[in-house]
Amino acid sequence: MHTYKIFTLAAAFGTATLLFSSCTRHDAASKPEDNKFKVTDSLLGSLLVDTVQQASAISQITLTGTIEPDENKVAKIYPMVSGITENVNVLLGDVVSKGQTLASMHSVEVAGYSKDLISAEADLRDTKRTLEATKDLYQSGLASGKDLEQAKSDYQKASAENSRAHSVMSINKSDQRGYLIKAPISGYIVEKNITSNMQVRADNTENLFTIADLSSVYIIVNIYESDITSVQTGYPVQITTLAYPGKVFTGKIDKVYNMIDKDNKLMRARVKISNPGNLLKPQMFANVVVQAKSGENLPVINTRSIVLDNDRNYVVVKEGKSQVRIQPITVSKRVEDRAYISAGLKPGDQIIASRQLFLYESLK
Predict the structure, then answer these.
(1) CA–CA–CA angle 346, 347, 351 (5° rounding)
(2) pLDDT tens-digit readout, 301-325
(3) The domain at 43-57+296-363 falls in which architecture?
(4) Nearest to 187 by CA among 103, 94, 102
(5) Where are the domains of the chain?
(6) SS3 156
(7) What pTM did the predictor assign?
(8) What is the distance between the alpha carbons of residues 141 and 143, in angstroms, rounded to a whole number?
(9) How many whole angstroms separate alpha carbon 117 and alpha carbon 166?
(10) What is residue 232's DSSP assignment?
(11) In what order do the strands lie in the sheet containing 83-88?
(12) CATH fold label, 62-71+214-295
């Protein structure tokens, strides 16, 4: 009887244990696994992290302009004497060197200058001999002090006249061919108002040649009234031309002319840039993009950090040492590789700047 009771209790305990084990396995199998993506410390340490900066927002204004010679490197050549041109040795657009003969002409005035120089040199020699002879006579007692003073005075006058005649001839250079018109600087012939066998007058107000050194040039920018407040001295610009569509020239606005042209209602600004190889020529048309400050202080980030998804912009923000999250942002404007953010970020935030697309897809 006792044996039967012990067997029954053992059987009941075994059945309960089996049922409990089965329930435990069933509960464990039914519990969902946690498959949420987690950023490890090693992954986060291998990523680039940018800090959101604050800067004045930049707006781009596209204007037009023309290439002009640097006014400090331009020489206009006017006739110094009257005469008739004989040889014109250069053409419009030619490159000339300082001192090169541009043209020659016959001139009665230059012939008179040559005669004056010869006479002045002869007078100087005569008065010098007279002065030396008078000194000897004065020392011998055969000439008075007045005679010596007169000889000195005559020599000084002759010396002054000789210097004047030489100065005139140095300005009005000539040789056996006649009066020579020479280049005062090196550069390009950008204006030419002279031909062979042309009569030239010294009182002519029109210049014969204009030479421009094009190693640096000006871009004269046309500013419309609506853009006047957006263009200021020091703003950086990018310049492109029809002649070199793939080349960008850079510079800064160095002068704003604070006057409006009454005919076309434009104000103008000037950009001075170097011109290696003399690629830019006077009167070329130019497109000028001015990067102007808008006055708004907005957070700025590099555009490489932005993820575009369904026409919306996102970044991956780092929080603390090992937490990241997706942050939607509103881009106010883009300038080159910078994006100005009007909503979603503040200065000092840290954002992921490499493999952000992988993180975005894994986190969303």
Answers:
(1) 80
(2) 999 999 999 889 999 998 877 788 9
(3) Beta Barrel (2.40)
(4) 94
(5) 43-57+296-363, 62-71+214-295, 73-211
(6) helix
(7) 0.54
(8) 6
(9) 6
(10) -
(11) 174-175, 178-182, 101-106, 83-88, 199-200
(12) Elongation Factor Tu (Ef-tu); domain 3 (2.40.30)
